[in-house]
Amino acid sequence: MKRVARIACIALVLMLICALLGWAMMPRWKSKPYTDHIAVTSSDPAIVPASISIAHEGQYQTRETQLSVDIGDGETLPAVLREPINAPGARPACLFIHGSGTSGAEDFGDIANAMASAGIVTLVPAKSNEDYTIFHRDYPRFASEYSKALDVLRDVDDVDQSNTGIYAESEGTWIATILASKRHDIAFAALTSAPVFKGREQMAVAMSTYAHEAGAPKPVIEDTMKLLSLDYRPFGLQYADFDADHYLKSLTMPVLVSYGVYDTAMPIEQGAQRIMRVAARNGNNAVTVRYFAGNHQMRAGKGLFAPGLPLADGYTQALENWVNGVAAGASHSGWATPQVAGPQPGQQYAAPSRTNSGIIGSLGVLVGVMLAGPLLLGVALLLSIVAIARTTWRERDDGIVRMRGKRAALYTVPPSHARETVPVSVAEPCWGLGLSLLAASALLYGYLAAVGAAAVLAMTPAPRLFDIGWHVLQVIAVLVVIILAWSGQTMWSARHSITGIQRAMCWLVISAAAFTLLSMTFWGLFCWW
């Protein structure tokens, strides 16, 4: 009973320490519901200029021309030019800028062709994917390449250089604002599904919404905040802190901001409000906001990446009317339709103003902690193999045969080299704790992989998966602490009867347990408040 009491006390102390560490690892901010909702004047997203006659979708037949854009250093990018046939006079023109989900010259074909049928010349260049990875994205370099494509578009016959602008989606809107800060000849900017905020702030909106829709328990939602608070620089993810605010002030031209009301990845209300506020601060009141019954790609339906979906109703018509209206001279007050219109959006969570971390503030440190446990267990396993091999080599009750030339001599193992066995009282807790730590780590990593996969798949609601899985992990975490307490107490009792290698194995296993518990603590498995 005394031993059970000691083990229980050790386990309680360990869980108290883990709980305190878990509290200290919490970020210094919280995901908050968004309450400052935008005022939508009309549910109809149509855009109509006042007292101005413009071309409409389908008015002209179109033709496509394959081009190449010289981006320097002997490199070129393919591009597709679409033009209205027999459209009179100099035509407005629009350059398309890719987001993270597209990169080819054939992308945006339905939007670009619809715009061309309304008399607008469009150019869709491919995006260079060189050194474009999850770890590195050079937005200024992309802006420079798109600037060269814009020069190509402006030089096309019958293009009105004074009415040449840009269309950008999602991540491409960051590139568009950099481009606008470098050039002052951009006549208009149509920004669709714009993140607006820094990458980690925008992801706070997306991940909070995804986790909520998936029915994730509160600790899982808090884990997303911890991840978003980390310093990513050891992995080259500096673009997570892209300074979107710095470039927003470059939007001094007429701006069209469009969002799909089913887009859970973007700050669909907060983003539009920030663009209007920053533009007005810089003297630009020509910002039009439209919402459509569409998703992130402005496709009808709620599927985030579902292929083959049609564009949201009225999207291309509103886009074309706005471009043609701007080209015809419509000012911020020259519209027969309101500034903000479309279905009422419902942004659930606000983009945070800060993302301060807890005591673990680096992704590199977190990865190191999570890898240290399995690595130390691996080293302990190697040491155990070495110990077993040494014991097997020394143990020869019948002697060891060694060949020297053509003669053989039989040496009998002296009694002093008798079998060195690991005491059962030490070997069993070592193996038991090691196996429990490996199982706990595997389940934790598997659970995190499932959460990540669900995020990539737009978090298909699966509340039972997250709720049951989370509580199972919590039970396993408590069992690991109890096993650690039992193992530590047993190893301490046998500390005088073990050899150097065995002592090293014990310390390695205990260290592995410490790192494993630390990683489990970071993910909130010991937080019950």
How many separate helices? 13
Beta-strand share of residues: 5-15%
Overall CATH architecture of the largest domain: 3-Layer(aba) Sandwich
CATH topology of the largest domain: Rossmann fold
Order of neighbouring strands in the sheet with most strands: 1-2-4-3-5-6-7-8-9
GO molecular function: carboxylic ester hydrolase activity
InterPro entries: AB_hydrolase_Est10 (IPR053145), AB_hydrolase_fold (IPR029058)
Protein name: Putative membrane protein
Keywords: Membrane, Transmembrane, Transmembrane helix
Q: What would the keywords be for this entry?
A:
single chain, 529 residues, alpha/beta, Rossmann fold, 2 domains, 9-stranded mixed β-sheet, two-stranded antiparallel ribbon, 13 helices, 14% strand, Putative membrane protein
Describe this protein's structure.
With 529 residues, the protein is of the alpha/beta class. It folds into two domains: 1-26 and 360-388 and 427-523, no CATH class; 62-350, 3-Layer(aba) Sandwich (Rossmann fold). Helix content is 45%, strand content 14%. The protein has 13 helices and eleven strands. It has helices at residues 2-25, 109-117, 139-154, 172-182, 199-213, 218-229, 244-248, 270-281, 315-327, 363-394, 424-456, 463-493, 500-522, and strands spanning 62-72, 75-84, 91-97, 121-125, 159-169, 189-192, 255-260, 287-292, 340-341, 400-404, 407-411. Residues 397-424 and 457-461 have low confidence and may be disordered.
